[in-house]
Amino acid sequence: MQNRSGKFIALEGIDGSGKSTQVAVLANRLKAAGHKVYPTFEPTNGPIGSIIRQMFSQRIIGDDKTIAALFVADRLDHLQNPINGVLKKLEEGFTVITDRYYFSSYAYHGAHMPLEWVIQSNALSAELLRPDLNIFIDIPPQVGFDRVHANRADIEIYETLDNISKVYTTYQRAFDLLKEEEKIVSIDGNRSQEEVSDELFGIVSALLAE
Ligand code: ADP
Ligand code: TYD
């Protein structure tokens, strides 16, 4: 891993777990507390992320393995992009908080292809940058499903309760498999947004004070 002064934190969870909401709140609270913060997300809004989104919405046709491989490429670009890449931001002293990182690949692709392959295919990213902390926002699949359905008109085809449940189970398998080399905490996301953000802020503030 390269020299860096900022910390790298990945928020993980099934769809509807509250990651996007919490990344925004956490970034604002940390900024207000005087930290330099760079919030970001995957799939990125770069060219590879754009292809991925078009495959999800079936404007471009791509099979599951192609999508998994594009996520590998999107992640490497997310890290190494010379303009706004995560590695550059960390070197500049930003605390980088990402809405999803490689555990999302493990969970979403490992749900329907061998998990070992997905982990292997992301080995370069893991070598370049392991999160100082992976934070799993834990909600039951049914809650995620209900939140997504209550709040969105454009439900994507893979967002069935069965798929979300498989993703949830695969997250747990991946956390268990990698518990020696990864720092992982799980927090209860099935509470009010304020309760979740208070706990998150406490965890991340403690990490930044180390
Ligand atoms: P994700 O990014 O993990 O898919 P979002 O932050 O987009 O999740 O949240 C999904 C939906 O659930 C949004 O409409 C959001 O307002 C709502 N939501 C987020 N956190 C909570 C919470 N703690 N309780 C109830 N609803 C929530
Ligand atoms: P996103 O646009 O962040 O949706 P959401 O706000 O619902 O989390 O991500 C789109 C989908 O991409 C999401 O369902 C999870 C999936 N995904 C993968 O399949 N593999 C990955 O490596 C990542 C990062 C995301």
Highlighted features:
210 residues; alpha/beta; Rossmann fold; 5-stranded parallel sheet; 10 helices; 54% helix; binds adenosine-5'-diphosphate; binds thymidine-5'-diphosphate
Description:
The chain is built from ten helices and five strands. The chain has 210 residues and is α/β, with parallel strands linked by helices. The chain has one domain (8-208): 3-Layer(aba) Sandwich (Rossmann fold). The protein is globular and about 45 Å long. The chain binds adenosine-5'-diphosphate (ADP) and thymidine-5'-diphosphate. Adenosine-5'-diphosphate binds next to helix 1, helix 8 and helix 10.
Task: Reconstruct the topology from this structure.
Blueprint: E1 8-12, H1 19-32, E2 37-41, H2 47-56, H3 64-80, H4 86-91, E3 95-99, H5 102-110, H6 115-121, H7 123-128, E4 133-138, H8 141-151, H9 161-177, E5 184-188, H10 193-209
Parallel strand pairs: 1-3, 1-4, 2-3, 4-5
Helix pairs in contact: 1-10, 2-3, 5-6, 5-9, 8-9
The structure holds adenosine-5'-diphosphate and thymidine-5'-diphosphate (TYD).
Residues 13, 15-21, 147, 151, 192-193, 196 line the site of adenosine-5'-diphosphate (ADP).
